[in-house]
Specification:
Blueprint (H helix, E strand, L loop, with lengths): L5 E2 L1 E4 L15 H14 L3 E5 L5 H6 L9 E7 L11 H8 L4 E7 L2 H8 L3 H17 L3 E7 L1 H7 L1 H13 L4 E6 L6 H13 L7 E5 L6 H11 L3 E4 L13 H10 L1 H4 L2 E2 L4 H4 L2 H11 L17 E2 L3 H8 L17 E2 L4 H13 L9 H16 L7 H12 L7 E13 L5 E13 L2 E9 L2 H9 L14 E9 L8 E8 L5 E8 L2 H20 L10
Length: about 550
């Protein structure tokens, strides 16, 4: 008889705890985009930030940002000496357009004394009053018991009292936090078991682990083994110091490893799981950072094998050196000694774009060779769908020559204006050949790339009306090696009035040249898409 599986709830704190990562500062637009990604993927709870703490979070919570997931506002428990109804922080949380409120509560008596400067009993009363206020406002209440494991080791009776107070006041989830990230998996398992034995059911307990010893994922799984039924974490494990538990690693483990999958289930579908590699890469792209090649499950090297006995065995049966099928997480096998694995991937990628190429077509081999050569130079076609499609169509079919840029020049002048203010002015001149007629356009812009973009799109003759709705949505620069002579990769995101978005790439030791390559590809792709000669994927 098959036993019913218990439900694990996934709580994402990328937009709150993840924003503590050095160098990361989400705008309201970033937060809206990330919340949508998480919601569509199937995450149960999306914690959006701290309403009232800053203008960005206050604006973000002015309306509900999820359709399926519970939208969670974060805040402190009410201040000691102030009633719940008169605490401005609590009011901001309660009044936000959230489904739930997550309170951070001190559960280590040392922190109560030093950080809050109140008695242990006053802290317990603040926890209870905060939970009751959230519930009275119709919100689900969660309590993050900060420093719980350190607090339990120092004074187990008081740490348990904090968790018990939250539970008795009606908190749906009491979350045990390893805030300093130093607790070991065996300790986590032991302490969680003691919490459950004390009378708080596992179905009301969560785990919030930090990665300071590299064990946030292991600690989260140990807590699940011991009985907790909510896991808190972030996309790609971002977070303060060494980061939080990585949901991108945890979710496939929970769903694909029988040690967990046989007895628990998540709210993520198998179809959604197959998009987790793309979710991870899209998030890194939004952060403008290179994906971690050796990331578990989703990294470019996760299923890559070099020449030797591994590759030979893989060719006979992939299960010999793969712990899961890479397709189950949207990744792909890479056998570097052979084109065979690569060829199948290329055929599939081309087919998605409406390009059918026989496996034995010599042009396919030529395309694979060019892509490998270009990727060695720094091109990244996985993040630049439109540039890959243009390259493929040039080699396998034909791309019309809509126009030809015969030359371009870019000048940057730094000077004092009439008011004595120092100004930097960028000017670009582009010569374009359209139907045998050469046109020259001059433009000034905010920086050389902007000037080039304006000049290039200023006069394309009979094609001019077709690019009126083309907009550059994002522009990212990545240095591929060190030094002032570094090779630069430029990635441009474009969109048009149809809502379609596409990405193009350029690589050069000259940042202006790399930018121009990506700009050119974007315009040509738009003209192809207008003729239904490209863009089947982008327009889906």
């Amino acid at each position: 008889m098959t036993m019913a599986r218990e439900r694990i709830y996934l709580f994402d704190t990328t937009l709150r705890d993840g924003q503590q990562t050095p160098g990361i500062d989400f705008s309201v637009e970033d937060k809206i985009a990330i919340a949508k990604m998480l919601d569509e993927f199937g995450i149960d709870y999306v914690e959006g930030g701290y309403p009232g703490a800053n203008p960005t979070d206050t604006a973000f919570f002015s309306q509900k940002r999820t359709a399926r997931a519970k939208f969670v506002a974060f805040g402190m428990t009410k201040r000691v000496g102030v009633s719940a109804s008169n605490d401005p922080g609590l009011a901001a949380l309660v009044q936000s357009k959230s489904d739930a409120g997550c309170f951070v509560a001190k559960s280590w008596d040392y922190h109560v004394r030093v950080a809050l400067g109140c008695t242990n009993e006053e802290n317990l009363a603040a926890i209870a009053a905060s939970v009751e206020a959230a519930r009275a406002a119709g919100k689900e209440a969660l309590v993050d018991c900060e420093h719980f494991f350190d607090g339990f080791k120092a004074n187990p009776g008081y740490a348990l009292a904090c968790a018990r107070t939250a539970f008795d006041a009606g908190a749906r989830w009491v979350v045990l936090c390893d805030t300093n990230g130093g607790t070991q998996p065996s300790e986590v398992r032991d302490i969680v078991e003691k919490v459950i034995t004390s009378g708080i059911p596992g179905e009301n307990l969560g785990i919030h682990a930090h990665d300071d010893t590299g064990q946030a994922v292991a600690n989260s799984l140990a807590a699940v083994d011991a009985g907790v039924r909510q896991i808190q974490g972030t996309l790609n494990g971002i977070g303060e110091r060494c980061g939080n538990a990585n949901l991108i690693t945890l979710i496939p483990t929970l769903m694909l490893k029988s040690a967990f999958a046989d007895r628990i289930e998540t709210g993520i579908s198998a179809e959604a799981l197959a998009g987790i590699s793309r979710l991870s890469r899209n998030f890194d792209e939004l952060l403008n950072r290179a994906p971690e090649a050796q990331a578990p499950y989703v990294g470019a090297s996760a299923f890559a094998t070099k020449a030797g006995i591994h590759a030979s065995a893989l060719a006979k049966d992939p299960a010999t050196y793969e712990h899961i099928p890479p397709e189950s997480v949207g990744n792909r096998r890479k056998v570097m000694v052979s084109d065979q694995g690569g060829k199948a991937n290329f055929v599939a990628e081309l087919k998605r774009r409406g390009i059918d190429v026989p496996r034995d077509d010599s042009r396919l081999d030529a395309l694979i060779a060019v892509v490998k050569e270009r990727e060695a130079e720094g091109y990244a076609y996985e993040g630049a769908d439109a540039s890959f499609e243009l390259l493929a169509r040039k080699m396998l079919h034909t791309v019309p020559e809509f126009f030809r840029v015969t030359s371009f020049r870019c000048m940057i002048e730094r000077r004092f204006d009439a008011n004595g203010q120092l100004k930097t002015v960028s000017e670009a001149i582009v010569k374009v050949l359209v139907d045998g007629e050469e046109k020259m356009s001059v433009a000034e812009g905010h920086g050389p790339v902007n000037a080039l973009d304006i000049a290039l799109r200023k006069d394309l003759g009979k094609f001019q009306h077709e690019i009126g709705d083309l907009e550059l949505a994002d522009f990212k620069v990545r240095i591929l090696n060190g030094g002032s002579e570094a090779v630069t990769r430029v990635l441009i995101e474009s969109h048009d009035a149809t809502g379609a978005r596409w990405w193009t790439v350029g690589v050069s030791d000259n940042i202006i040249d790399a930018s121009f390559q990506a700009l050119m590809d974007s315009i040509v792709y738009k003209l192809m898409k207008n003729r239904e000669m490209a863009g089947l994927v982008a327009a889906e």
